[in-house]
Structure formats: C-alpha cells, structure tokens
Amino acid sequence: MIVIEGLRVVYRDVISVLHGVSVTLEDGQITTLLGANGAGKTTLLRTLSGVLRIYDGDVLEGSVKIEGQEVTRINPVKIARKFGIVYIVEERTVFPQLNVMENLKCAASSRRDKDVARDMDRVLALFPALKTRLHGKSGYMSGGEQQMLSIGNALMTKPKTMLLDEPSLGLAPILVREMFKILIRINEEEGIAMFLVEQNATAAMKVAHKGYVMENGRVVLEGTREELESNEDIREFYLGSGGEGKEKDYRQSKRYKRRKRWLG
Amino acid sequence: MDYLIQVIGSGIIQGLVYGLIAVSLVLIYKSSGVFNFAVGEFCTAGAVFFFILQSLGLPLWVVIPGFLLMAAVFGGLIEKLIIDRLIGRDPMAITLVTIGISSILVGLLLFFFGANPEIVELPLPDLTLEIGSALFISSQVWNGIIAALAMIALLLFYKFSTMGILMRATADSQVKSIVLGINARRILTITWGISAVVAALSGLAVANGSAVSYDMGIVGLAALPVVLLGGLESIPGAIIAGIIIGLVETTSNFYFGPWLGLTGFQAISPYILLLVVLLIRPEGLFGQELIERV
Ligand SMILES: Nc1ncnc2c1ncn2[C@@H]1O[C@H](COP(=O)(O)OP(=O)(O)OP(=O)(O)O)[C@@H](O)[C@H]1O
Ligand SMILES: [Mg+2]
C-alpha cells in the first residue's frame, strides 16, 4: 500500500504546485487520477517515483509512505528496485536509439532472478506488434508501438506498482481501448497495482477501481468508480455528459460554485 | 607513387590514433553532454601508467591489463570525486570544469613525473613494413594496429555487451533509466572509466616509438576538429573523421604545404576542412539524427 499524505511540493523553491495532496493506492488495484492541464498530476508521479529532485522540485511538507516506509528522501533507483515502483513517463519510457530487444534487456538489467527470458516472451506475446520490430530503432516505431514497448519495458522490471502518465496520449481511440484492455489484463493476471493519470476520463473510469480528481494542486474529489461515475460534477466536466444545452453563462457560474465547494 | 603510399599510410595510422582520442571524447559527450577538455591529459596519464609499470620490469602481459585497469580507476575516480558532485548542472558548466581538471592534471604530471620525456617502447615483434621505397617502422605499424583493435573492441562492447547497452540507454535518457531501476550515476562513472581506458590506449599509441612527457596532452587538441567533423555523438563518425583528418594532415604536409609555400600548413588544414564541412552540414558528417516523435 502506498499512502501519500498532505504533500506540498515546490519547484525551484518558489513555484508551489501541490498544496497538501493525500492519495492512497491499494495493493493490486487500479487507481486513476484525473485533472486538467497543469493540475500537478505529473508532479505527483515524480514525487512518488523519487525523480522530483531531477526537475529541481522539493517536498516541503507531507509524506509518501510505501509499505509503511517514508520515501520522500530516498534515491529513485532504490525506490524502483526495492519497492517495485516503475514509472511510465508521459514521453514514454522508451529509449529511442535502442532497438526493442535492447530496450527490454535494459529494463530488466537490475533484476537478479532467472525469469527474465520468460518475461520477455510474455511481453512479446502481450504485444505481438513488437515482435516484427525487434531489431529496428524503437524511435522509428509508431506512437502506439512505442507505448506498447513502454509498458513492456515497465513489465520487464517485474513491478509491484506501475505509475502511468497519460498513456492514452496521442493514440487513436481504437488503440486506447486495446491498451486499456491489456492494462486490465496485466492488473488481473499479475496483480500489479496501477496509478493511472489520465485526461481521458471516460476510458480511465472504465478500468479503475477508484479515482481522484485534482485541480490546481489539490484533490477536490475522490471515491470508488461507482461514486465518481454517478457524481454530477464528474459527469459534466470529465465524462462529457449532462449539463449540455444550457446557457454558457449559467454553466460557468455553476461551475464556479461547484469549484468553491470542492475547494472548501 | 611511393610517396603517395607513404603519405596515405602515415595518414591512416595517424588518423586511427586521432579517431581513438575522439572516441574517448564522444563516449562522455553522448552520455552527459560534457566535452572533456582533459582528454589529452587522460592520454598522457595512460602512457605514464604504462611507463611506470614497464619500468618496474613487469612482463608485457601484466603491464597491459595493469595500465588499462589503472586508467579505468583513474577515469572513474575523476568522475566520482568531481563530476558526480556537479550532476544536474548545465553540461556547459561541467565542460568548463574539465578545463580546470586538465590544468590540474598537467600540474600533477609535472610534479610527480617530472619535466623530462621518457622513452616508451613496446617490446613487440618487428613489423617494419617496406613497400617500394615507402617505409613504415615497426612502432608506427603497431600503433596503427593498437588503435584499430581498440576501436573494434570498443564498438563491439558498446553494441553488444549489457554494459554497452546500458551506456547507450542512459545516454538516451537518464530519467527513463532511473525510473526503470537502472543506476544511471554508476553507469556514468563507468563511462568515464571506459573513456579513460580508450584515452590510455591512444596515449600509448602516441608515445610508443617516441616518448611520453607531462605535456603530451596537446594531442587532445588534434581530436577537436575530429569530433566536430564526425559529429559529437557518433562513434563511427569519430573513427572515420579521425582517418580523414589524419590523411588531410599528412597530404598537406607532403603536398599542399610545399606547393602553397606554407610551412606548418598541416596544422591548420584540418580546420579549413572542418569549416567547409560545417558550413554544409552543421551537425558534422555523422551527427546523430534526433528521433523525435509525439
Ligand atoms: N520542472 C519544473 N519547474 C517549474 N515548474 C514546473 C516544472 N514542472 C512542472 N511545473 C509547473 O507545475 C505545474 C504542474 O505541472 P504538472 O506537469 O505536474 O501538471 P499536469 O497535471 O501533469 O499537467 P498536464 O496534464 O499538462 O501534463 C504547472 O504549472 C507547471 O508549469
Ligand atoms: Mg502531466
């Protein structure tokens, strides 16, 4: 279990981005995090994976506990290895100058167990498209193939938890559906927990067990999938239904009120 | 005609050595965007390590792995003690630091090794080559062989070994390697160690048949047009550009210089070539295409 409590994060000592975020990720569950551009979703993933420092960010307050252990001061390599956290970054965790084989080998390089070859076969079975591209530079593959390789790389680390930063970004709708199906399969078959950051709320809601909504560095809403799906605000602002056909001014003032309620 | 063979042969041998120095630079540049201005001193240090072990009277099969190991530790230590503390800074800032490292190393070499050049001679079979009236003395031939073998070994290592793949991965993206649990910092340390090994072999090829002195590091300057010509990120580029620059130097020395009536023309000829190439291809002959895709 990963428990994030009251997290306050700044960049360059002054740019305050997270203002007291609390999120809990249960083992083996898919948790989604929705929010508009600039809400601080990526920042939360950077903090959780420990790479925040690289971006000149700092945790001012709050804690991130993985299996009870505080990790905000721990080196990201150790977080990845010891706690099985793997982070699929928005730009995709793929090395463009390396071919598919080399990518998968690299991703497994910190492992000491003997199942690497077996896992490589599993990844290729999961993403057959990669098989045809084993020896070409991965940077030349299509966006969809690269996202598959990115997930494949993540799997090669034998993770307990996958952090996914907008994996659907730039993919055609049919590919998005396919990818989410595969994510569910990975979650169910391997019991890998997922923290799924998305702007594609409809797709994310379908696969998640529970979710959070973030705005301007704060969690404004949380709940199980059912709770969120039936929430009127979510339906209106993220799932694109309800509220249609109403006058614009009215809508805006309504949204403003709701926001106030969320923030309060 | 015999002149031509002499000129081309010497150019290629010289070029292989330049290429090897350039490879040492490219390894570090690729992985961190840092241009190591101390590369010349890395060469000198390698040759000095060789000289020290050899003057202890050790057999060649001990001296060779021994001095390479010393070079690896030397490069790794410099990274660990100095560069590692600067990680996260602008690569340009670290590049400037390497100029400082270069000066300090020259000072240390002068202090510990002294101002007198020492003769370096690899005890290897005589491979003196005579083609017509062209003559390649044994040490020259061996230096070409050393440089060529070192390049092949490095290329194979970089392409196929797990460490080579990891070095290329971290060169692609440090953050992506880190989130996959790859210890990118350790790999950077190892990269400096390997770069120092490559420089040490270049240093040996420069000193063998002549001498090593504390200020031998100026050969590092010869690698400058080579990496710029080959593209800072390309190892094959460094090798090919090395050979081109070697050929340009010897041909200008034998032909163009006298023809133009300019002594010392060979020293500036690489830069003239460089200017022309950079005007046409600013990323160098073999600059790596950036693969970008959104
Ligand atoms: N390295 C950085 N230095 C300074 N400010 C940053 C840095 N990275 C992000 N920010 C700022 O922090 C805020 C939150 O950014 P973040 O990337 O976490 O948002 P996000 O929710 O992931 O947005 P998006 O949906 O666009 O990816 C933004 O205002 C951004 O400009
Ligand atoms: Mg983001």
Task: Summarize the entry for a quick read.
The complex is a heterodimer of chains A (264) and B (294). With 264 residues, chain A is an alpha/beta fold.
Write structural notes for this entry.
The complex is a heterodimer of chains A (264) and B (294). The relative contact order of chain A is 0.16. In chain A, helix 3 (100-107) packs parallel to helix 6 (143-156). Chain A is of the alpha/beta class. Chain A starts with a strand and ends with a helix. Chain A has 2 domains: 2-84 and 159-230, P-loop containing nucleotide triphosphate hydrolases (Rossmann fold), CATH 3.40.50; 91-158, no CATH class. Chain A has helices at 41-49, 76-83, 100-107, 116-126, 128-131, 143-156, 173-190, 201-207, 225-230, 232-237, 248-263; strands at residues 2-11, 15-25, 30-35, 57-66, 69-70, 85-88, 161-165, 193-198, 210-215, 218-224. With 294 residues, chain B is mainly alpha-helical. Chain B has a single domain (2-280), classed as ABC transporter involved in vitamin B12 uptake, BtuC, CATH 1.10.3470. Chain B has helices at residues 2-32, 39-55, 60-81, 91-113, 138-160, 162-172, 174-179, 184-207, 219-230, 235-260, 265-280; strands spanning 118-119, 129-131, 134-136, 211-212. In chain B, the strands form 2 sheets. Chain B has a two-stranded antiparallel sheet with strand order 1-4. In chain B, strand 2 (129-131) and strand 3 (134-136) form a beta hairpin. In chain B, helix 2 packs antiparallel against helix 3 (60-81), helix 5 (138-160) crosses helix 6 and helix 9 (219-230) packs across helix 10 (235-260). Classes of the chains: A alpha/beta (264), B mainly alpha (294). Chains A and B meet through helix 2, helix 3 and helix 6 of A and helix 6 and helix 7 of B. Magnesium ion binds at residues 41-42, 90, 165 of chain A.
